[in-house]
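Researcher: Let's do a round of design. I'm pasting the structure tokens now; please hold your answer until I've finished.
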């Protein structure tokens, strides 16, 4: 599952490494359109389910894409919408259920959603029961400046997962907070 799929680089890497199927969740309709074209050009469109939803703590809200969902958050888009494109919101769990994704067959969950990753903490807690699932969590702390309680939200995951750096060095306790604080734009592995 690729949350924040953009135009598909992770999807293509997955197939280069023999992924059977990929679920690509992308909020930006322009990016999802290009992602679909990239899948067709690479003859993998039959093995990719593209889900155009905006990850949010509540499902079925109409979100104007281009508008910052969190104060100080950003977006990587192929076009500037200025809030004119509308997409439905979804929790990660609801997107999994709505698309009949069997989590017993999913090995990797990549999340890269430009500062809005804090919106998925509750869903990640629920997903922690799938011990085989490895989560690649990209953190965009520079977008968190004005978000109250942000360190406490991430700390909710400390008891659910073992944390590792992208080079697979183990992090424990206060080391996790220190690493996040000192490595802006870092990727963590949660197992």
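Researcher: That's everything. Go ahead.
Model: Designed sequence:
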């Amino acid at each position: 599952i690729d949350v924040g799929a953009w135009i598909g680089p992770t999807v293509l890497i997955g197939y280069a490494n023999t992924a059977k199927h990929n679920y690509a969740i992308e909020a930006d309709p322009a990016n999802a359109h290009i992602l679909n074209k990239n899948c067709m050009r690479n003859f993998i469109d039959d093995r990719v389910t593209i889900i155009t939803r905006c990850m949010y703590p509540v499902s079925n809200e109409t979100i104007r894409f281009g508008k910052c969902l969190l104060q100080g958050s950003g977006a990587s888009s192929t076009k500037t919408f200025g809030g004119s494109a509308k997409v439905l919101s979804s929790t990660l769990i609801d997107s999994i259920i709505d698309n009949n994704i069997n989590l017993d067959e999913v090995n990797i969950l990549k999340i890269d959603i430009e500062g809005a990753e804090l919106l998925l903490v509750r869903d990640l807690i629920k997903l922690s029961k799938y011990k085989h699932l490895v989560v690649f969590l990209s953190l965009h702390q520079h977008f968190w400046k004005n978000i109250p309680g942000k360190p406490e939200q991430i700390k909710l995951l400390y008891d659910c997962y073992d944390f590792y750096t992208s080079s697979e060095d183990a992090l424990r306790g206060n080391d996790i907070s220190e690493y996040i604080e000192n490595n802006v734009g870092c990727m963590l592995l949660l197992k």
